[in-house]
């Protein structure tokens, strides 16, 4: 790490495979490092991944997320440049969006604006893609505003779906794309902000 290394805080509610892809990517790249993992679930798999990489963790509930006077100093202590949502299921409160303008990124496992919004997460997304016989799906990486899945789109990519693909297979195909693209999109976003 150098004095100019950018500092990332990852927010995740689940297994954390995206979080780990980002940690691994930046462990070999001085541009950025993951300095904290925030979760709202004390049993989330992402906590074990954080431990494995010796990254500090913060477990917060919905109330703490909404409490500006608690959350902002707790995050500011880590001097983050970007907040990275990777499977974080709570709505980001307005106070956080205001404190980190254009500095919060999210990944959604479908081609927004399709299959986004409240209730469209995890398996629900891939089931809906399957039910509609979509020919392709893929992740969307976007800036976060106060509405679910509605901020400016930074990146999308897609994979062809086979009529035989079950929702689980669709999920696997999309997740593989998430792992290979999310770290690089974060890197490019940081580089764009530097110039
Ligand atoms: C990913 O599909 C992500 O797009 C979605 O939730 C899933 C999280 O997976 N929002 P993981 O926790 O990164 O393994």
Please describe what this structure looks like.
38% of the residues lie in helices and 19% in strands. It is of the alpha/beta class. It has one domain (6-194): 3-Layer(aba) Sandwich (Rossmann fold). The protein is globular and about 50 Å long. The two termini are 20 Å apart. The structure holds 5-O-phosphono-beta-D-ribofuranosylamine. 5-O-phosphono-beta-D-ribofuranosylamine binds at residues 12, 14-19, 86-87, 107-109, 121-122, 175, 178.
Instruction: Give the C-alpha Rg.
Output: 16 Å
Q: Give me the strand/helix succession.
A: EHEHEHHEHEHEEEEH
Mean pLDDT: 96
Mass-distribution shape: globular
- The stretches of 5 or more residues where confidence is low (pLDDT under 50) are none
Just name the CATH architecture: 3-Layer(aba) Sandwich
Q: What strand line-up does the widest sheet have? A: 3-2-1-4-5-7-8
- How many β-strand stretches? 9
Largest sheet: 7 strands, mixed
| CATH evolutionary superfamily | Formyl transferase, N-terminal domain
- Quick one: CATH class? Alpha Beta
Count of helical regions? 7
Lay out the secondary structure.
Layout lengths: L5 E6 L5 H11 L4 E8 L6 H7 L4 E3 L2 H5 L1 H9 L5 E4 L8 H6 L4 E5 L14 H9 L4 E2 L2 E4 L9 E4 L2 E2 L6 H28 L1
Parallel strand pairs: 1-2, 1-4, 2-3, 4-5
Antiparallel strand pairs: 5-7, 6-9, 7-8
Helix pairs in contact: 1-7, 6-7
Short overview:
The protein is of the alpha/beta class. The protein has helices at 17-27, 46-52, 62-66, 68-76, 94-99, 123-131, 167-194; strands at 6-11, 32-39, 57-59, 82-85, 104-108, 136-137, 140-143, 153-156, 159-160. The strands form two sheets. The protein has a seven-stranded mixed sheet with strand order 3-2-1-4-5-7-8, with helices on one face. The protein has a two-stranded antiparallel ribbon with strand order 6-9.
């Amino acid at each position: 790490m150098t004095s100019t290394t950018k500092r990332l805080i990852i927010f995740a509610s689940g297994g954390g495979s995206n979080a780990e892809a980002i940690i691994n990517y930046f462990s070999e790249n001085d541009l950025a490092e993951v300095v904290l993992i925030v979760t709202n679930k004390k049993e989330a798999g992402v906590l074990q991944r954080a431990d494995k990489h010796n990254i500090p963790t913060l477990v917060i509930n919905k109330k703490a997320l909404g409490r500006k006077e608690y959350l902002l100093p707790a995050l500011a202590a880590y001097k983050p440049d970007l907040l990275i949502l990777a499977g974080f299921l709570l709505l980001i409160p307005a106070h956080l969006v205001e404190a980190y303008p254009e500095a919060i990124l999210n990944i959604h496992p479908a081609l927004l604006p399709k299959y986004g919004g409240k209730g469209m997460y995890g398996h629900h997304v891939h089931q809906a893609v399957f039910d509609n016989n979509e020919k392709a799906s893929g992740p969307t990486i976007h800036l976060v505003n106060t509405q679910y899945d509605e901020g400016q789109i930074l990146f999308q990519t897609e994979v062809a779906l086979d009529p035989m693909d079950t929702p689980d297979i669709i999920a696997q195909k999309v997740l593989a794309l998430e792992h290979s693209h999310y770290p690089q999109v974060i890197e490019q976003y940081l580089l764009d902000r530097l110039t």
